[in-house]
Amino acid sequence: MRVGVDLGGTKIEAIALDGDGRTLVRRRVPTPRQDYGRTLDAIADLVRDVEREAGEPGTVGVGIPGALSPATGLVKNANSTWLIGRPFDRDLAARLGRPVRVANDADCFALSEARDGAGAGARVVFGAILGTGCGGGIVVEGKVLTGPNAVAGEWGHNPLPWPDDGERPGQPCYCGKRGCIETFLSGTGLARDFRESSGESLPGEQIVARALAGDAAADAALARYEGRLARALAALVNVLDPDVVVLGGGISNVSRLYGNVPPLLGRWVFSDRVDTRLLPPAHGDSSGVRGAAWLW
User: Fold this and answer.
1) Would you give the DSSP letter of residue 180?
2) Residue 93 to residue 120: CA distance in whole angstroms
3) How many C-alpha atoms does 287 have within 13 Å on its Cβ side?
4) 189 φ, ψ to 5°?
5) Of the N and C termini of the chain, which has fewer Cβ atoms inside 10 Å?
6) Nearest to 131 by CA among 186, 189, 191
7) What is the Cα–Cα distance from 134 to 154, expressed in whole angstroms?
8) Could you report the per-residue pLDDT of 14-25, keeping only the tens digit for each?
9) How far apart are CA 254 and CA 57, in angstroms?
10) Cβ distance 229 to 236 under 8 Å?
11) Which residues make Cβ contacts (< 8 Å) with residue 156, sequence separation at least 6?
12) Would you list the domain boundaries of the chain?
């Protein structure tokens, strides 16, 4: 049996999978924000509860909103800032009395979709998270690619490719740069673009609903978003050339992306044709926690 844990900013979710990937147990609890020790305790308690209900122990994999530094073994780049600088995997292993495997949550998403999701059977899968932030993960032949700096797949902190005059220099990003892909393709980026063009403040889901209802300003904002997504993905294809790109996060639920974005890719991909498939996630919100379980 495999146990996966997805450590989010507001909730911690755990799942137990049998050998065929079927869900045996699924549970979630609130995240003890800003408290490292209580976060570890909550994860350990949740794992034990899941195993108790499933009736057997399992391997444990955890997806976190950050990465373990290969240089120090400590957490870096985490938007759950109370994890930064901590030996998370070692501390959790000590609480559980066994080894654990830890990966970036976007890597877990990509692994889940590559293993038995939308990218099943593909050699190279890129998982692109479009939500509060903009993350990514790469799976090659069923294995997560992390790289010597543990930043493989971090496409959100590259500049938006081929920007026009209205997109330069771009908004400041929390990483300290300007014009990052994340500032355009996150949900907050979509909301900001709509606000600046229409003068009205709306969350992303309402912008999408208005566009579907025929609102011209909302439709134009989504069209700009689709063009930016196409450019960002085209640059990715030019470097990685994945077989499949699977979208995750809240914006992955916008169905028009899958029809409108692929025809745009050919403008920027350095090829006579583009065969990379753009797909919605097969496992939806469950992909991250499932991928954590598949770390073993």
Assistant:
1) B
2) 31
3) 33
4) -65, -40
5) C
6) 186
7) 8
8) 999 999 999 999
9) 39
10) no
11) 133, 134, 135, 136, 180, 181, 182, 185, 186
12) 2-108+286-293, 121-280
Neighbours of 98 (CB within 10 A): 13
Q: Do domains 2-108+286-293 and 121-280 have the same CATH topology?
A: yes
Q: Could you give the C-alpha distances from 202 to 41, 47, 205, 210, 273, in angstroms and in order? A: 38, 38, 8, 10, 37
Whether the model pTM is above 0.85: yes
Nearest to 134 by CA among 181, 167, 176, 171: 181
Indicate the burial class of 227 (C-beta count within 10 angstroms; 0-12, 13-18, 19 or more).
middle
User: Do the Cβ atoms of 277 and 244 come closer than 8 Å?
Assistant: yes
Distance CA 2, CA 257 (A): 34
Pull the structure tokens for residue 172.
């400041």
In CATH, which superfamily holds the domain spanning 121-280? ATPase, nucleotide binding domain (3.30.420.40)
CATH architecture of 2-108+286-293: 2-Layer Sandwich (3.30)
Tens of pLDDT along 59-108? 999 999 999 999 999 999 988 999 999 999 999 999 999 999 999 999 99
